[in-house]
DNA sequence: GCGCTAATTGGACTACAGTCCGGTTATGCC
DNA sequence: GGCATAACCGGACTGTAGTCCAATTAGCGC
């Protein structure tokens, strides 16, 4: 019999089972008590799994949050790489301008982060610099840099835009000004960088 | 005999003495071992003081870092409020434009943060949202907002500029691109907001 | 100088993140 | 199916941030 392999490092059946149980338990606890106030001990207990297993599989609390977000993060990344315009590259004969794509990215990214604000915040602020270490940041940065190609300093400007989209920043600023104004400001910033 | 009082809540002599000893010990340990790897226990021990005292006086590690920065933070704030142009308001007959002042603020703030990057980073990232809770952030935000008066949304744009000047962000981006490019990008952003 | 009162002190205590390693179990080969 | 091996498991352990309260001590009016 031929079995499908998703990737070279094969995951043992019990490990896969535990991973699923842990993620489900974590999601339930987070939903019920809020991301901040759930301890890793509690998650391990709820999943019927030892602490060592938790940390072995997910590294730390940020890694657990990242794993929970993985699905939707990939969806956004696929839409950016292969999806319809203006977020994606679209068809060759009707390609969106970089400025249009940057606006679309800003909107879509805000949708994503604001929908999962607590989880993203946890994944970005669990330890100082965490945001810049996870692979996702590199993806967003590369995408924005490419859209800014040819301007003064695409890489530096991309970092600046992403700074305004950091989860901890959004958390504080949305509480202060409301989502609408923050979104408009981010879009103005995106426009300014492509002007 | 007339004694000078700095403020209504009078500080007891022993408390003042301990505060000074603690700050000196913390500064020494930070200088020697780096901000990250010094524990509050170590600071208390080095200062010959109990842990309770440390937390009572400074709240947490971020508060301790803030106290150490207090001197220089005040100096910058004074220069902004009362100093010479273009950072300060200057003389009535030769006032700088808001755009000039915003560039000057960006430069001066970067000087300040980059000089004390580890301490500022600790004060901003000790706990999620810490940056937005300390009074200093409100000061910078108000200042930038005032300089942007009359434009689309001064408060939202001020938050966006300050996001690019966050210590954790600067730490990561300076490591990636170097100080010069980051500074130029921040200045371009300041210019864009006043255009 | 002297006692009254309230702030201050400091170390024992809790809770949590993250590490470690002896025992267990799945997997692949024969 | 049976066995060798490598990966996995889980709970005991460590180090640290932050809390709490009984004992102390400074400031103040007399």
TrEMBL record, chains A, B:
SUPFAM superfamilies assigned: Homeodomain-like
HTH tetR-type domain mapped to chain residues: 16-76
UniProtKB keywords: DNA-binding
A Pfam family hit: TetR_N
Gene Ontology MF: a single term: transcription cis-regulatory region binding
DNA-binding region range list: 39-58
Superkingdom in the source lineage: Bacteria
Protein's name according to its UniProt entry: Transcriptional regulator, TetR family
Species of origin: Goodfellowiella coeruleoviolacea
């Amino acid at each position: 019999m031929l079995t499908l392999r998703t990737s070279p490092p094969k995951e043992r059946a019990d490990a896969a089972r535990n991973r699923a149980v842990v993620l489900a338990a974590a999601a339930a606890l987070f939903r019920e008590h809020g991301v901040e106030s759930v301890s890793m001990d509690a998650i391990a207990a709820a999943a019927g799994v030892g602490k060592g297993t938790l940390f072995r599989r997910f590294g730390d609390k940020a890694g657990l949050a990242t794993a929970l977000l993985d699905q939707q993060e990939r969806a956004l990344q696929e839409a950016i790489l292969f999806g319809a315009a203006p977020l994606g590259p679209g068809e060759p004969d009707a390609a969106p301008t970089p400025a249009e794509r940057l606006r679309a990215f800003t909107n879509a990214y805000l949708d994503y982060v604001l929908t999962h604000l607590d989880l993203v915040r946890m994944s970005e602020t669990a330890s100082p610099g965490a945001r810049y270490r996870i692979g996702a940041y590199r993806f967003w940065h590369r995408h924005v840099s490419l859209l800014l190609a040819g301007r003064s300093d695409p890489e530096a400007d991309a970092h600046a835009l992403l700074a305004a989209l950091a989860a901890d920043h959004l958390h504080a600023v949305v509480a202060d000004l409301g989502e609408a104004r923050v979104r408009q400001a981010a879009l103005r910033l995106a426009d300014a960088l492509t002007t």
